[in-house]
Protein 1
Amino acid sequence: MMQTPLTVGSLLERAEKFFAKKQVISQTHDKLHTLTYTEIGKRTRKLMSVLAELGVQKGDRVGTLAWNHHRHLEIYFAAPGIGSVLHTINIRLSPEHIIYIINHAEDKVLLIDEDILPLIEKIQGQLKTVEAFVVMTDKAELPESSLHPLYSYEELLHTGDPAFPFAADINENDPAGMCYTSATTGKPKGVLYTHRGIVLHSFALGLADTAAISESDVSMAVVPQFHVNAWGTPFACTWFGSTQVMPGPRFTPKRLAEFIEKFKVTITAGVPTIWLGLLKELEQGNYDTSSLRAVLCGGAAAPKGLIQAFEKKYKIPFYHAYGATETTPLVTFSRLKSYQQDLSDDEKLEERSRQGILVPGLEMKIIGNDGEVAWDNQEMGELCLRGPWIASEYYKDERSENAFTDGWFHTGDVVTVDEEGTIKIVDRTKDLIKSGGEWISSVELENALMAHDAVFEASVIAIPDKKWQERPIACVVLHEGYRDSVGKAELLEFLRPQFAKFWVPDDILFFDEIPKTSVGKFLKRQLREQVKEHYSLQQ
Amino acid sequence: MMQTPLTVGSLLERAEKFFAKKQVISQTHDKLHTLTYTEIGKRTRKLMSVLAELGVQKGDRVGTLAWNHHRHLEIYFAAPGIGSVLHTINIRLSPEHIIYIINHAEDKVLLIDEDILPLIEKIQGQLKTVEAFVVMTDKAELPESSLHPLYSYEELLHTGDPAFPFAADINENDPAGMCYTSATTGKPKGVLYTHRGIVLHSFALGLADTAAISESDVSMAVVPQFHVNAWGTPFACTWFGSTQVMPGPRFTPKRLAEFIEKFKVTITAGVPTIWLGLLKELEQGNYDTSSLRAVLCGGAAAPKGLIQAFEKKYKIPFYHAYGATETTPLVTFSRLKSYQQDLSDDEKLEERSRQGILVPGLEMKIIGNDGEVAWDNQEMGELCLRGPWIASEYYKDERSENAFTDGWFHTGDVVTVDEEGTIKIVDRTKDLIKSGGEWISSVELENALMAHDAVFEASVIAIPDKKWQERPIACVVLHEGYRDSVGKAELLEFLRPQFAKFWVPDDILFFDEIPKTSVGKFLKRQLREQVKEHYSLQQ
């Protein structure tokens, strides 16, 4: 067989050739843009020539600080297209972490959304490697800014070459992209994505048994493009010629609902908190969501109630998936097997609330206290992964050896597996509660609580306990209508029949909101401090 | 990213783990077998240990002479599983070609179906490298045979190790499979398939926009396993956990129709002549074919009438695909784009009678008289291909340089391309008719003739012409009911409004059948001789 490499550039080339008329619909600060893949292709090629003129060379990192829009899509292909590395930076991180990331990655050029300029202006003096700033704005004039040298994206494109070729000397194991984890403790850790990994991952997203991304799709990635490449959907959607809808900066649930109706979105991807927000909006408005064939949910476990609300009330198929920054990210996808169609509705919901089976192309093993766990839905163990889109290390980081040992990536996620091979995330290794020598899954308690009508969000953490080592405490946000009527006693009563006695939390605390990471996950570290503070104030 | 190789063994490992209960239903000479993937996995591992004991080493070729059944499936994984090469031998080739192929490939072991033993017994003396013969039989005793040493497949399996591991030292560019072209002239040419090529090709078969092979499928490959790995479907179906139905030796259209009904087949793949036969059977019987979601047709162009009969009359979606032995084989797949759903029924049929667009992962260029042709549906050129599942050469064959030049595989197929990028095979370079300096497509004339109610098959060939260089002659097989009522004049009249005057054949000859290659393609070389003879007899 021919030794032709798998390259990111080839994904866009296919869209240019075979889906020339298909569209990318992009909301920016100032307006809604509609571009064909022909236009996206020409603009990307212009951008490649411009980056080359700015001095970006093979292997250099090109950073982005941007929302989901077409310019961000263009740099997704332009940076790897010239052999450099697309480094998407999480704009929700602290300035301290952003400084660390940019310096650690040694970004040479930064492409920045207009509303993020102030953030970069403040830290400019601490950026050691950046040689040029590019503002991604619709406006004709450059904004006032202390950044220097500062270029306008559109101005640069005027001078670009619309026929600039994708680099021919790409080795498929060359890095194409890069993303840092949104670490809750310590410095963020960098992950390099190779051309090979991204292309194979795109194949995985197009399979009939996973997301089945197709030409006939209208895809709206709600998951940020600065977070694990929006789960790789911009790459796959471009390759397969899907229409792409990009909700742009600081979108609201209302905009999402409106876009779904207006552009007849068929597939959308995001974290549970986004879908909780959308659900609220759907309940308030009167939207036509009948075009949706799939809502993909990842980043954290979706409570059963959320799945049920989408499927029963709105007839919107809701799919759980699982992945991580280190895994490009798709690892498992939850879809009933053919013979599971005969299960009862409750059994189906139970199965679909799990994270699904491993997608083709990867290997997994689950390591418990005594080696690999049984597939019995009971034994808990850490999920370990291997495969061509699983990171082999953190970028220039000594912490690599903690997570990457024996050729496997140790995810830090604790799972059970049923006999179908379907995994269920029951916790993070660090969030598992160890009580009296037994493990308690904080996630299972959270899901059970969130299935209560009154509960909007729930996070369960461990507090130190002299007798039992650790004990669980539940932190709950109630839906507005229930704040006066539902209390601790009722929720504990609700939990008791569902769990062993020692699993039931010692206390339930009520909050107005639960602190979250920049990508919408519960920030348990901060929550633990708040709870600690709460109890010390009580004493 | 990790440097984990793409290997054929991993495809079956996934089925063993995640689809343990799913079934392979296999018809052999003596009975219908039903095996789970757990059983297939154990038997394959036993076979791997047995092959190793027979002395098969890494890189050695293991030949098969067999129909479509579960034992053939097991060797599909066992041979590459120990690092050796699965060499499927086309049992319909002449003994002379089979001898050539086995010696040229240097097959070390041959696995043979019982009814094919006599063929091998006759040529045994001329086989230079074969050290062991294995008969794939259900019977307890070995059949009488002059082959030596001769083993029974099932007897060998008794001694095998059901936990034998897949080889760990596979490089993904190692050869996993091998198939020789069914050459119409000269010696057959060998093509090596790599582990990488087969895995990537399997990804391509699972995409929502191609065959979308899925766990929920019941797949029946009618295309022989000895022909380009049954188009790769056994690999993909195993990986994705589909139920597989294998129609076994010397099947009839009746058996195919019965199996479709009985096992609720959802997808099936074969050449047009198979589907013409099935259509006849469906017209005679009263079969429930409602489970079928896709009939895949390749190997030769399907006439519009065939597509229409399946879709209109039986509501069976019919998909054209295109490939070759050198291309693993999937190259293009015909599926309407979303915006083509608005076309008229006639326009849709026209589009769907074309071979489709290039599947993700490959590159194509169409070379006409003056470089790359326009995508105007008019200009004809030779289809050239590049990609990780396209052969780079013929195995130890000097003829490689004719087909593999400048890094591209020159298919020998002449196509036009429309503005959607959809290709239409209009001829083989060697079958194109050159008349008065213009090209005439034999295939287009054939398709037009086969759209006539009276015509069962039509093949158009060139005969030498003093004035025009070449002129087309049509060779036609009429449906039985029409043999007395329809003649040359009516068919010519039928063609005239559809083509330029110089395209209309000079003559129409009627045949009882048209000679075909071992894989069901028209054997034009032989037809030309018959036609030559016909005219010389007339003179």
Note: Residues 368 and 381 of chain B are 4 Å apart (CA to CA).
Protein 2
Amino acid sequence: MEKEVTIYDIAKILQLSPATVSRALNDHPAINSKTKLSIVTKAAELGYRSNTFASNLRRKSTSTLGVIVPRLDSSFMSAVLAGMEAVANQAGYNLLISQSLESQGKEKTNVKTMYNSRVDGLLVSVAYDTEGFEHFENFVKKNIPVLFFDRIFDHPACASIVIDNVQAGFEITSHLIEQGCRRIMHVTGNLKRNVYSGRYQGYQNALAKYGIPLDESLIMVTDLSQEAGEAAIEKLAEMDNKPDGIFIANDICAVSCVQALKKRGFKIPVDIAVAGFNNDPVSKVIEPNLTTIFYPGREMGEVAVRTMINHLKGVQKIDTTNTVILKSELIVRESTVK
Amino acid sequence: MEKEVTIYDIAKILQLSPATVSRALNDHPAINSKTKLSIVTKAAELGYRSNTFASNLRRKSTSTLGVIVPRLDSSFMSAVLAGMEAVANQAGYNLLISQSLESQGKEKTNVKTMYNSRVDGLLVSVAYDTEGFEHFENFVKKNIPVLFFDRIFDHPACASIVIDNVQAGFEITSHLIEQGCRRIMHVTGNLKRNVYSGRYQGYQNALAKYGIPLDESLIMVTDLSQEAGEAAIEKLAEMDNKPDGIFIANDICAVSCVQALKKRGFKIPVDIAVAGFNNDPVSKVIEPNLTTIFYPGREMGEVAVRTMINHLKGVQKIDTTNTVILKSELIVRESTVK
């Protein structure tokens, strides 16, 4: 086992007193900045660790956290941001907020801006089409913590806050099957995003459990917009062997499906049961009310910022946590109860 | 007419060359900061103006704008923020965002935080119960621009972005009267806020135009929440002389009224016509679809940030603008067409 580097090791190498090293690592004003820099640099080089090491390295803390979301104008994201702001504000942190507009290009620019703004930490939900992790490497190299929420990247240096999308997809599909559905259409988003691939995996697991073969002609990958809902129902209406159930990976698109189905004279849930995802406010207003998954947006925002601040304060490092899975919940309403 | 102060006047008074004065006002690195400060101070004292004067004064520009909203988790505010972020990002500005949670106390704390964060400008929609302007005085004193949007304060040094709430309230009430309504209930928010007092004034103007006397027992001041909608309908159900129309000052509360009315067996719009305000997504999902006022949230955010940046870049000072009124629009749907 490799021996842990101590302040005595650093002091010896630099021919300084251990007290000076300790003070420098705690950013004590009595140590001049040149000495401080040489100590901090050597400590980093040797892999020195202490509970407050990360925060000491950031000698220019801005008490600002960067947040990058796909879109600001979504009900889910506004709940997340409300939760984030409440916790950040309480702890004396500010939030610098930007949106990628679902584009990898804009996300990269946003990440660079956050870097130049010297945020103490970065909280990200990645864009629809983001492919790689490279644009976050600068943060990792500088020990600036990056935390993903909802739409995540799995990276050893980063933590993630999610719900169990596989389990949620499994529960809602199982519910449809238990209501008698046998041909269940699934309208989803980009399967490179964990949230959509997870829900799709859950859908497949439920079919497998009940011995229903997967029919790929019933899977539609869309951008989950209102328009996508209308297009999905247009396609459904032309099918010879029509589905008796439909699971849509968000409520905005699901509500649009319900409206399009009703316009074409389908009776919900008798002709076709409809289930969404998110528990968006519209799910309680549409008639019939929509079966969906409760998605704890506010809690996700709160936990994300709390995890980040605990790391920055040296209470608990984010790379020891890896993933926090929040509880989601199936909410059964009239749109699926046959 | 008073003569405009020039760099020659400043140079003469300070016994410096005009070139030095010019360079100092343009924040040229060759001029030492003490000289720069004395020149900038004298220029300010004499009322010197140039296109870039405002931006020169702010020698420590952070390229960050502060935004304080009542709540982050509202559909209207998330549209505003999306518009703000798009314009700010395009122009190289960051947004520091916080919420007052409708409390004057938290708003004051937020304003202080924004001040200490050295934002280049502040964009505010005031809380439900904010009483005075004092907490913004520090900004005004330091020449840091403050712009109000939606819920505003009238202050000579600040600009405001609003819709014409009086006109919108007038139009929607007139529409109810034209549909045959004669006893129109009005559910509104804190009348100290321009948005609610304006809509109420518009309601009164419409009644006056059609010769309908104002009945104050039909006016309910609430927090416009979902619960407030249920409470309003409970009260309505107990009235002997029931209203035949109801105008609610936001859609969230209006949708809750529709649901409560339907539960009690009222037919909409035959028994009672219902109109909301905001064109919130739920207004298009509730049955019957809700008559409302289109409220250009995204545009309001865009115009607010564009106005602020124009000021910061010296293109156009905000105190010459005072108020920008955006177009709103009556949207007639089934909930009012008898």
Note: Residues 112 and 337 of chain B are 49 Å apart (CA to CA).
